[in-house]
Structure formats: C-alpha cells, structure tokens
Amino acid sequence: MGERKGVNKYYPPDFNPEKHGSLNRYHNSHPLRERARKLSQGILVIRFEMPYNIWCDGCKNHIGMGVRYNAEKKKVGNYYTTPIYRFRMKCHLCVNYIEMQTDPANCDYVIVSGAQRKEERWDMEDNEQVLTTEHEKKQKLETDAMFRLEHGEADRGALKKALPTLSHIQEAQNAWKDDFALNSLLRRRFREKKKAMQEEEEKDQALQAKASLAIPLVPETEDDRRLAALLKFHTLDSYEDRQRLKRSEIISRSWFPSAPAPGTGSSKASSVLKKLSQGRRAAPASAPITVGDLGIVRRRASRDAPVPSDSPGPGEPRRAAHDTPACPPACPQGTPGAQDSPQDAPAPGPSPKTADPSDAVQPDGRGSSLVADYSDSESD
C-alpha cells in the first residue's frame, strides 16, 4: 500500500533519504492509511467474509455465506502457538454489531455475540469418520497404561465391526486394479456396439428409401414379427401387366364403328330432327318422326347427273319449295322417270301410317337431297 503512494510520486526538495527513509515517514503517515487508524489499540480493519449462514439478532434477517464486511481484527488469545483473532463488524441491514472469533482446535469460526448460526455442520462422529485425537487424550495415553489398554480394546472392536465393509471396498478396488485391461475391454465393447448400430442404421435408411418413408423406424421386436406373420397381403398388378391388358383390349376391338340400324341416325341427328318436328307440328309421342313431318322434300337424282341448284337462273323467277310438282298418286315410286327427274318428289306431309319407309332419314345421305318446306310458316 505504501509503495503505490511512493513510487513515481512527487518528492519535495527537502526530502532526504538518509534522514527520512521513505515518503511515509516524511509525511508521518502509516502505509495502510485508514485501515490502521486504531492500530494503537491493536485493531486492524480488514475485509472479512462470512464463513457460513447466520441470523442477525438485531433485525432477525438472514445473512448468507460469502457476504463481505469491513471488520475490526484483534488478537484475543492463543491456542498453543496459534493466535486466536476476533472480528467485529456492523450488520448492513441494521445497527447491530456481530462478533466472531477463530477456533483453531476445531478449524472453525465461533460466534461470540450479535448473531446465531444456521446449523448445517457435518458431524464426523455421527458419520463414523476418523476423529482427531485431543491433546489431553494423547497425554493420558502416554502416561496411563490402563487407559491405553482400554482404548486399544475399543479400537479392536471398532475394527471388527468395520472389517466386512473394508473387505468389500478392497475387493472393489482390486477389480479395477488393471486399468489397461479394463480400458481395452470397454473400448472393444464400444466398437462392437457402434458397428451394430451403424449396420442397423444403414438397413433403416435403405428401407426408407425403398418405401419413400420420412418417419423414423423403431427397433423390431418379437411381437412385431409374430403380428407380421399373421398378416397376408394380395399383390396388385404391376404397371407392365396393366399396359399389356390395355394393348390386348385395343387389338381385339374393331377398327370401324358399328353401323346404325336402318331408319335411325346418330344421337345428334335424332336430336336435330326432334327439334324440327316440335317447331312444325305436334306429333304423337309414339309415332316415329319421318321426313314428311319435318316438311322436307326429297329430290332423287342419278349419281352421274349433276345435282340441280335450288337457286334460280338469271331469267327464271324464284320458285319456292312448295311449288315443286308432286308425283301423281298413280305414278309408282319405282318408275325410271321418277328416279331420273330431279323435280319429281313425293308430296310433303304424308300421314305417319302411310309413309314410305324410304322417307326415313338415311345416315349417309347418298343418292338424295333434302329441301326444307316452309309453306306453313307465318312469315310473309
């Protein structure tokens, strides 16, 4: 403490090292400064740390172990050649003073006044530990033969009681005596266990990759094997089998669509005919729809002759579909003149009962043309 005040500090001009010796003697001050203010009374102020938990008698508060105080240190006696010191400090929570002193005989601190100790001590006698022999007992063992004999008999009885425990401890120590062999054994077992764990992990990863699983797999048990043996799964057709079945179905199927029955068209043509018949006249639901019901005039023409156009020429007047001369009733439909003339056609609107089967709509439309009859329309 004195050196930190004297090194590299100001030295006055009248300072004489031979006379003063140091700056502390020159300034007539102690090196410990305020800590030595009661040094004449044999008291030195030090930094004291609480050795255990206590309860303050003034404020009844708990003071934990390790709390530090500025304590007044004073020598109050000796234990043989070891001095006994007393420490006096003020509680930081109240005005009460706490006094403690050292106990060299038991290597402990004793509370003199101002506080109570929180009992947390370890009793060596209750825990059957070896106790230190007191000085008076040592002197008596050296001088009194009968006391020494009685003390020896008590020690032999204690040894007889502790012998099984000591032998068990000795056997345990001998088992661990060869450190190299035990270390080699442990390392060998560890390597085998680690290798088995790596193989199991590789199998699990392969199974997860094969089944596209993202869940952790648990170790297999005997119950799992027994349950798996009771289950039966049906194998599904593979992709190749399904493709082979589709090819066989395509090969066995006909290349051309099936021809519709005579007198019937496709579903689309049937729907169109029904709409046209509903717009012209109401027909019985049970009667079949014919060309005459729709007001359509059929013109027959030969395959080689060109089909005449319905549009009139430059010098001819426009003629409607209902002005076309109809074939007389006496004229048979199968005569060559009726087939060759493009103007000959049956009268529109025959009854459903007397309608010619040839009036039905032909699916291919070959050898005839259809012209709608709008004579009954309301338009001018």
Automatic annotation (TrEMBL):
One GO CC annotation: post-mRNA release spliceosomal complex
Coiled coil feature spans: none
Pfam family, one: Saf4_Yju2
UniProt xrefs under InterPro entries: Saf4/Yju2 (IPR007590)
Gene Ontology biological process terms in this record: mRNA splicing, via spliceosome
PANTHER family per UniProt: SPLICING FACTOR YJU2, SPLICING FACTOR YJU2B-RELATED
Name of the featured protein: Probable splicing factor YJU2B
